[in-house]
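Consortium newsletter contribution from the modelling node. Members have asked for a concrete example of what our holo predictions look like. Here is one, prepared for the glutamine complex that several groups have been discussing at recent meetings.
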Amino acid sequence: MGQKTKYIFVTGGVTSSLGKGIISASLAKLLQGRGHSVTIQKLDPYINIDPGTLNPYEHGECFVTEDGAETDLDLGHYERFLNINTSQANNITTGRIYQNVITKERKGDFLGKTVQVIPHITDEIKRCIKILGNEHNYDFVITEIGGTVGDIESLPYVEAVRQLKWEMGNDCVVVHLTLVPYLAAAGELKTKPTQHSVKALLELGVQPDILVCRTEHKLTKDLKRKIARFCNVNPEAVVESIDAETIYDVPLLMEEEKLDCVVMDKLGMSTDPKNADLTQWHRFLDRHKNPETTIKIGLVGKYIELKDAYKSIVESFVHAGAENGTDVEIVWLHSEDINDSNVANQLSGLQGLLVAPGFGERGIGGKIEAIKYARENGLPFLGICLGMQCAVIEFARNVLGLDGAHTTEIREDAAEPVIAIMEDQKEINKMGGTMRLGAYPCDLKEGSKAHQIYRHLEISERHRHRFEFNNKYLADFESKGMVASGINPDNQLVEVVEIPNHPWFVGVQFHPEYKSTVAEPHPLFVGFVKAAGEIGKSLV
Ligand code: GLN
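And here is the predicted structure:
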């Protein structure tokens, strides 16, 4: 387009969980549908350097980018909606901002000066915001500010936005997401929380340009006018965001409300009267909402109380389901509740089994029992990361007869000596004790199931793990019927295992779920859902 990058800031007020990530991704989708290049960035106000060490119960899934950044799960939404790759630069935390500033301070960059929140922390925030526009030539950079306006933690971010608004003038716009609650007793929608939230922003020197109002009921023209009057915005800049049936409806709802046009208008850009081109999106949504069949897939994990812990897996099933014309019903199974006496019962009625990623020892026993059942009963199985690791441990114990087979991730003081089927291979990884993160190449074996699924021999997938298959045992595995069908060409690490004699049994050391998007559903999920529909159905 050859013009300056425009910056869109998305803040949130009244309460958390209003769906800033989905609104940001939806706005980005509309701008992308108009032919613009867009990326989205998330600024998180917590002090961890990244969410890598956070318990999934705290923060949901940790999303991993191509360049190996451990990031907020909203980046998953951005990638799934836009079909673009994000990177470390797309997720910044307060911890990282302070770390950068303190590192500079130690290097003597601020010699003689007192290092302060303003200007040093805010300058670093501004630098991180502008990096994407400066280095990549995007037409739009959308920056989502995590947290809720009024929180102590987000103050420096709002201050950075205030300064940027002053510096950039017409090249930036602030979208504020608020809640318009419905009071059942009064039978009315209430605008006061929105008014207060905008006041809170104004106290910090930021006048929002556009208000996106989350609501359970339609906003009347009068109500929009009232909000506009109290909050100093144009009535057309009060955008209704009504509760949607699925997150994938939100771009279309925002299109009806003309959010893209209002934003572009505020940025002084002319808009083509034609709507954004969302043909592919409509096709996906139509298939997603009108499935011809239903299948049940069991998802075994240990964080299932919080479904967000498996966000990308759930969304990958949505994409793969739409591709197959199938509704995938996920049956959540707690790994700690599965044992040898109840496994048949727990897995009855399922057409497929997915064993999820995870860390630590808790729940491994239940995962192994579930995999044994799937292997012995021809139930389609997909094991991801720890799920694949449990599959090889199960095979070693029950087919190779190696009773002590385990991963060295378990406690060092384990009662029995461990046969290390999975271990931290420090020499190979040259980074023992840390994780293999981000994209790595993988060569598939010609004619394998993995090859049929991917239809390529050379693939690249994202990783997030420390333990690796111990190649000392590979020949034994292959002679007994579990083959390594995907190998890392650089270091011979096993990346994919499968059982050719089983109808559909695949374990992957990487995380396919991070690469599934609406435009490109992941082939492993598409293949797994298809197999569950065909093979799994006959088992029930
Ligand atoms: N805990 C295992 C490892 O670090 C598996 C990790 C995962 O499932 N993401 O190797």
